């Protein structure tokens, strides 16, 4: 439906991170709920967690449920539309955002390939880590950019502790060692959280693991 047909300006926001979600919420509160604007947020995830909190998810020191925002609920309460999917292109002539099919964990299609008309398009996809093509990064390192990354790291950490507890042989030289590249806020806080949570995991009954010999650097 065009702006002329609906009488409302169509604003499409791609990316539901801190910027995109905040913009959609504010526009929805001020204009969407009053029927003055048609605001749509396109995001490939179902929930939002503030990115600076990912290190706490990775370390296992944060209850995700207490901090994540459900996009569908947020859109209902704040006057905008949430549409799940990943942007795969923009048709500038038709002023459309092209969105890939959304598949569930078993590979079944939930939503088909779609397009969304816009009068104003806001790109809020955020930034990503750049490995600059360094050999080995893709195969061996875990980037901490999404909830999936953080949960994957946490699962590998806990599994490593359980594996070390169950094995009959001594720990290897590099076993239970974590190398963190980047000493910004996330890297430093992740190192601190890992020292604390490793001791908590051991205290849960993995008494064959010595927290003094494991850790991050």
From TrEMBL:
Annotated ranges, domain FAD/NAD(P)-binding: 10-202
Organism: Bradyrhizobium ottawaense
Family: Belongs to the NADH dehydrogenase family.
Key words of the record: FAD, Flavoprotein, NAD, Oxidoreductase
Stated name of the protein: NADH dehydrogenase FAD-containing subunit
Highest taxon in the source lineage: Bacteria
